[in-house]
Amino acid sequence: LYEEQNINQVILAIHAISRTCNSKGLCPVIGPKLAEAAPRNFAPEVLAQGQAVIGSQMGYTGGANQSGQNFG
Description:
This protein is mainly α. The chain is 35% helix and 0% strand. The protein has helices spanning 7-23, 44-51.
């Protein structure tokens, strides 16, 4: 800050310090709030269903290709 270089990094650091202090109840938050943990607990049946899904792009050959290109 003294050398007037990289003011964006200074602002990001101030926001980070504010988030940390706010999580300990020391000051109000400046900038985006610190995320809280949100653990997910899925049943084994739901996890097994996710393993059976085939991605929509796996093996897809109907889109863009090089047919009709002419270099020369």
